[in-house]
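Query structure, 350 C-alpha cells:
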C-alpha cells in the first residue's frame, strides 16, 4: 500500500485540525478515527490505530472532549467539595480523586467549604451551576441536608472519608482502624491509654473512637474518662490535649490520636515537657501522611488507602443506576514505627 503524507490537507493552517482532517490524511473513515482516539476505551495496538495516532500527533489534532461530551449531555467534569486544602488529609484525598478521574477521562474542579453546612450548600450549588456531571463530597459534617437534597434531585454524588449512612459513600473502615491502633498499644503491654478522638460530628472520629473502645473493652481495660478527649483535628488541638494529659498528676503511658495532625501536636507538647516519644510514652496516629515516616521519631500510624477510596467513590458516583451496596469500606493498615516504642515490662516501665 502506498504511504500517505501526514501533511495537513487544508489550505487554512490556522483553523483547528478536525477529526475529518485526520481521517483524510490517514486514509480511513472519520468513525474509525473517532473510535481509535476515544480515550475512554483501552487503546488499540493495530497497525491502523498506530498510524492514526501518529497522523493525529503530526497534525496537532486535539480531541474536543467538551463538544463531544455536550452531545452526550455531560461535560466530563466532576466537582469535589473539601473543607480545606490546608488539611493534609483533604489535599491527599483530592489528589487521589484527581488521579482516579484523569484515568477515566474526567476533569476535576475543587471547592473549599470550611465546616459550615451553609457554605457547603453554596459551594455545591456553584459547582452544579457550572454543569459538573456529579459531586464528590468530603465535607466534615455527618448531619447536613446536602446529601439528602442531592438524592431527592437525582444528582450523581458520592461521599468520601465520611458517610451519612444512606448516600453512596467510600471510606476507610474507621472502626477497624481505631481498633488496630489501640490493640497495637495493648499488645505492647499498655493499660494506661488516652484517646484523642477528634470532632465527633464527623463519622471518621466517631468510628475510630468506637473501634478504640472496643479494643479496650475486649482487653478488660477501664480508662480514666478524662483521658478520652474530643477536639478538633488540627495540630494545635493535639498540642492542647497533650499539655492537658502531660500536666496531670498521673499521665497515660500511651496515646492514640485519631489523626496524624493530632499526633504531631502531642509530640510538640511532649517536647515542651522534655518527654521522649517512644520512650516516655507510646504514640499512634492515623492516616499515615507523608511526613509521618520522616519525623525525628517516625510516627506509628494507621494508613488510609486514599487511591482505593477515590476510585471506589468515582465508581459509585458514575454508576448508571443505584447500587445495592452504596456504602463501601476499605480496610486500613497499621504501620508500626519508633513512636509506639518498646513493649512495657510487668512493672509498668519501658
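Result returned for the query:
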Amino acid at each position: 500500500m502506498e504511504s500517505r503524507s501526514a501533511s495537513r490537507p487544508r489550505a487554512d493552517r490556522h483553523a483547528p485540525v478536525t477529526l475529518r482532517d485526520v481521517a483524510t490524511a490517514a486514509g480511513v473513515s472519520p468513525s474509525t478515527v473517532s473510535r481509535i482516539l476515544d480515550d475512554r476505551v483501552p487503546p488499540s495496538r493495530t497497525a491502523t490505530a498506530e498510524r492514526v495516532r501518529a497522523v493525529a500527533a503530526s497534525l496537532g489534532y486535539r480531541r474536543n472532549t467538551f463538544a463531544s461530551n455536550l452531545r452526550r449531555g455531560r461535560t466530563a467534569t466532576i466537582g469535589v467539595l473539601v473543607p480545606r486544602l490546608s488539611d493534609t488529609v483533604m489535599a491527599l484525598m483530592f489528589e487521589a480523586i484527581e488521579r482516579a478521574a484523569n484515568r477515566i477521562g474526567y476533569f476535576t474542579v475543587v471547592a473549599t467549604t470550611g465546616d459550615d453546612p451553609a457554605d457547603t450548600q453554596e459551594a455545591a450549588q456553584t459547582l452544579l451551576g457550572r454543569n459538573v456531571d456529579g459531586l464528590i463530597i468530603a465535607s466534615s459534617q455527618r448531619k447536613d441536608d446536602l446529601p439528602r437534597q442531592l438524592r431527592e434531585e437525582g444528582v450523581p454524588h458520592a461521599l468520601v472519608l465520611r458517610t451519612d449512612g444512606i448516600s453512596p459513600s467510600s471510606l476507610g473502615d474507621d472502626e477497624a482502624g481505631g481498633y488496630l491502633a489501640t490493640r497495637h498499644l495493648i499488645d505492647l503491654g499498655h493499660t494506661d491509654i488516652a484517646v484523642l478522638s477528634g470532632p465527633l460530628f464527623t463519622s471518621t472520629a466517631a468510628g475510630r473512637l468506637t473501634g478504640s473502645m472496643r479494643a479496650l473493652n475486649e482487653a478488660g481495660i477501664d480508662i480514666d474518662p478524662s483521658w478520652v478527649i474530643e477536639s478538633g483535628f488540627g495540630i494545635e488541638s493535639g498540642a492542647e490535649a497533650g499539655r492537658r494529659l502531660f500536666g496531670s498528676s498521673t499521665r497515660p503511658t500511651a496515646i492514640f490520636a485519631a489523626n496524624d495532625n493530632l499526633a504531631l501536636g502531642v509530640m510538640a507538647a511532649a517536647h515542651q515537657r522534655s518527654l521522649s516519644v517512644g520512650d516516655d510514652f507510646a504514640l499512634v496516629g492515623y492516616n499515615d501522611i507523608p511526613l509521618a515516616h520522616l519525623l525525628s521519631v517516625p510516627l506509628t500510624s494507621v494508613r488510609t488507602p486514599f487511591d482505593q477510596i477515590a476510585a471506589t467513590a468515582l465508581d459509585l458516583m458514575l454508576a448508571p443506576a443505584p447500587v445495592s451496596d452504596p456504602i463501601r469500606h476499605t480496610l486500613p493498615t497499621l504501620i508500626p514505627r519508633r513512636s509506639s516504642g518498646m513493649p512495657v515490662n510487668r512493672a509498668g516501665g519501658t
